[in-house]
Amino acid sequence: MRNIIFFLTLAWGTLSAAFSQTNSPQTVSPTLTHATIFLNRAELTATAKTTIQAGEQRVLVENIPLTIDPNSMQVTGTGNAIITGVRFVRDYLRNAPRPANIQRLDDTLRTVQDDIAAAELSYSVLEEEKKLILINKQVSGSASGVKVTELKELANFYRERLTDIGTKLLRIKEQLTAWKEQEKNIQNQLSDWQNRRKQPTGGIEVSLTASARTTLNLDISYVVNGAGWRPVYDLRVKDTQQPVSLSYKAQVYQNTGQNWENIKLTLSTYNPALGGNKPELTTQYVDFPQPIVMRREMAKFSAAPAIKGSVVEAAAPMADVQSSADFTQIEVNDLSVTFDIALPYDIPTGNQPQLVDIARHEVPATFRHFAIPKLDQDAFLVAQLSGWEKYNLLNGTANVYFQGTYVGETQLTTQNTNDTLTLSLGRDKKVIVERERLNEFSSKRFIGSNIRETVTYRITVRNTKPEAVQLTLEDQVPISQNSDIEVNVEEVSGAKRNPETGKLSWDINLKPNENRTFDIRFEIKYPKGRTVVF
After folding, report:
1. What is the mean pLDDT of residues 291-310?
2. Can you give the pLDDT at residue 206?
3. 3-state secondary structure 176-231
C-alpha cells in the first residue's frame, strides 16, 4: 500500500525565480479539473501524475497562470515520498500552451485552404476548356461544306457546354469568396491568440524526497486573480394571478490567459478581495486645522489569505433536464453561499463571459400598479416578492418578461430590511392616469398686504382592463420653508398625507372600466411684491 504524501503548505509571498539551466526539474503538465469561482478571484484545482527516482527530486507543474497568488498554493497527493518545499517560478522560455479550440481552428484553417486550392484548380481547368472550345469553334466555322444538320449539332454543343461551364465557374467563384472570407476570419482569430500567447507562463515547483522509485499523483490548488462572476436574473410573469418565475444565472469570466476546458464549477458568494479583518475604532481627536503638506506615499497592500472552497456532492439529474440549474447543489455556510454545478463547462479566457444557470425559483408575489402623474402620466405594474431572503440573491441586473414579451431591464437590490422585494415590470397602458390644473377652481386674491393664491388639480384614473387592479396613486402639496409663506391644504380627496413632506397617497381598488377622480386644492399666502415657486 502506498503511503500518503505528507502535506506541507509554504507561504512564499512574492517569491519567484527563473528556471535553472542546470539540474532542471522533471516537468509535468497538469489537468485542470475544478474551479471555485468567487465574486472576485477563483481557486483552481488540478491533478498531475509522474514517476520520480529515489533521493531528492524536483517536479515542475507547468502552465500555471502568472495571475496566481503565490500565498495560496497547496499541494497534496499520494506516493512514497515527502514534500519538502513548494514555490512558484516564472518561465520566460515557454509560452502559454496551445488549447484544444486553437488546435481545432488550425485544423479548420488547413481544411479551408485545401478546399480553396481544389476550387482554384477546378476554376483554372474550366477556363482552359472554355478557351479550347472557343478556338475549336472558330476553326469549325471557317470550314466549307458543313451540312445544316451538322451546324445545328455544333451550335447545340457549344451552347450547352459553354452554359454548363459558365454555371460551374459562377458557383466556384461564389464558393471561393465564402471560403476566403472564412480563411481571413480564422487567421485573424489565430493572430489574436498568438499575440496573447507571447506572455510568459509560470510553474509550481515541488521539492520531494523519495526512498525508492515511486509514482506520484499530485493534487494542486491555487487562487488566481482576473476571474469572478456576476449575478444576472430573468424574471418571467405569465399573469398577475401566478407567482414570478425567477431564473438565477451567473456571468462567469476569467482573464488568466489560459482556457478552462471541461471543468466542474463551484460559484461562491464570498469576495476575498474585501478581506476578513473586522474594523477597529481609534481615538478621535479635535484640534485646530493645520496647513496641508502634499506628499506622495506608496500604497500598501496586504496579501489575501488562501481560501479553500468546499466541494458539494452534485444533485442527481432530473428526468427532464433543461439547464445546469437542474444539476446545482446549494450549500449555505456561515459567511457565504456556494452553488456546486455538476455539469462541466468551458470558460475561455478573454472578455466574453460565459452564462451559467444556477437555479430556478417560483417566488410568491403580489401585484400592484403605481402612478405618480405629476412626474409621469403612465401607470407602472410592480411585483412585490415575499420570502426572497431564502433564495440567496445578490444585487444584480434582471431582465423582465411579462406575458412572454421582454419589457425591459431592472435592478434587483437586496440590501434592504423589508420583508418584500419590489420589482418594476414596466408601463401598463391599460390603466389610464391624467392630471390637470383646474383654472376655474384656481384664483389669486389681494387681501391687505398679502396675496392669497388658490391652486386646484384634478387626477382622473381609469381601468380599461377586464379585471380589477390595485392602484397606489401618489402626489403632493407644497411645504413652506419661509415664515412669510403659509400653505393651507383645503382638499385632498381622502388621501393619506404626510405633514412633514407633503406627500399624498391613495390606495385604490379599481374595478373593470371604472373611473375615479381625486382633487387636490391648497392656498398659498405670501406678501405682495414677492413671487413664490412651487
Report:
1. 36
2. 93
3. HHHHHHHHHHHHHHHHHHHHHHCCEEEEEEEEEEECCCEEEEEEEEEEECCEEEEE
